[in-house]
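thread: overnight batch results

M.L. [08:02]
morning all. the overnight job finished for the chain we discussed friday. pasting input first so we're all looking at the same thing
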Amino acid sequence: MPVTFSPSSSAQSVRESVARWLRDLREASGLTVSELADRCGWHLAKTSRIENARTAPSAKDIHLWCRACGDADQADELIAKSLNTDSTYSEWRHQVGSGLKQLQDSWVEFFHHTQLFRIYSSTLVPGLLQTEGYATALLSTIADVRDIPNDGAEAAAARVERSRVIHEQGRRFVLLVEEAALYYQLGDGDVMAEQLDYLLTAGALPSVSLGVIPMATPQRRLWPQETFNMYDDTLVSVELLSAQVDITQPSEIALYLRAFEELRAMAVHGSEARALITKAIDALNGPRPAWAGARPWTPHQEGRPHMGRIEYYNDPDAPKANTLIPASNLLVVNDSGAILLQRRRDTGQWALPGGAQDIGETAAQCAVRECLEETGIVAEITGFLGVYTNPHHIVAYTDGEIRQQYETTYIGRPIGGEPTINDEADGVRFVQPADLDRYDIHPSMRQQIGDYLAGTYPYLG
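M.L. [08:03]
and the structure it wrote out:
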C-alpha cells in the first residue's frame, strides 16, 4: 500500500511533544493550571500557552515547572528536547541575513565530513548538480523574492565550488529528480541547455547515481514531496518555502529513508534517465542523436555552442569513430617543478591545456595558443612529450561526429601571464607532482603527466 508521508514542521512536533509532557506532569501532580502558575510565579495564561504549544518554554521555565510538580529530575531531559526545537527549524530570513553566498559557504565543512548524500528534488535540479548559470538565475530570483541584497552571482560561484565535493574520492551521491523539474526553466534557453547537458555529464561520474522519476509513472506509490537531503544516516534537511527543517530524530530519519527508497524504486537510471534528459534538451534545441548523453561539453572555441558529447575511454561499448582531428596539449612546468593544470567547467576534472588545431597553424603553435586561451599563461615550448592516438579513446558529439583521440603533447615553461579562469576553465593553478593524487584527473591526462614525471618520453603511440 502507498506510504503515508508528510514532511511537516519537525520543530512544531517537538514543541507539541514538550507541551504534552509538561501537561502530563501537571495533571499527574494534581495541580490545576492556576495552582501551577502560582507556584511558578507567572500568570496562568502563560501556563496555557505553554501547554498548547503556542509558547516555547525557556530552560528556567522548565526547571520551575518540574520543581512545582515535584519531579525536578525530568527537567534536564525536557530542556534538551526543547532546545532541539531551535536548531531544528530555521527560517530562511534568519539564514540569509549575511547574504546567499555566506549560506553556501556555511555548508562546505559539513559536506567534507559527509560520506553518503541522498538527495530528492521535485522542482529543481539538485544543488550539487547545478551549473553556475542555472544557480545564478535561481539564487538571484530567491534574493528578489525574499527582498534581500542580490548576491546571486557570487552565491552561485560559491555553490559550484562547494559542489566540487562530488569529485572527491570516498563519497557516494544518490540523487533523484522528478522529470517535471527538467522543464521548469530558470534563466534563458542557453542556461537551461547548459544545465541539462551537465546533468548528463554528472550522471556519468562513478560516484554519482542519478535517477529521474518519469511524469508518466503509473500508480505512483508516493506523490512528489518537498525537496529533502539526507546526509549519511544522521541528518535530514527539508527545504520549505519559509524555512529549512533539520531532522535528527532516528524515527523520522527512518521515515525519510523509507520514502526515499520508494521514490528511488519509481525512478529510471542509466540510459533511460539519459533519454528523459535528452528529451528535455530536445524541447529546447530540437532533435539530437539518440545516443547523446553521458559526457556533454560546450567548447565555445570550436564553434559548438551547447554541443553535448560522450567521452569513452577503453569502453567496449564505444561507437566507431568517424573523424580524426589533430589536437595539441602543452605540459607547462615552472621553475619549482609544478605542472600547470586547468579544471574544465564541463566535467570538473583537471587537465593539461590543449585543444583542436586550427587551419593555418602548426601543432606547436596550437599548443601555445590553447595554453594562453585556457589558462592565461604565456608559454614557450622546450621539448616534445609524445603523440597519443589511443583508438579506444573516443569522443562522440551530438551532431553525429565521433572523434578518435589524436593529441600531440609538448613540454613548455611559463614566460608571462597569470593563471586566469575563463568560460572553459573555472580553476587554473600550478600543482606540485607530490600533490597530483589529490586531483581528479582524466586517465588520458594522467598517462601523459606520468610519462613526463617518469622520463619515459617521447611517447609514440
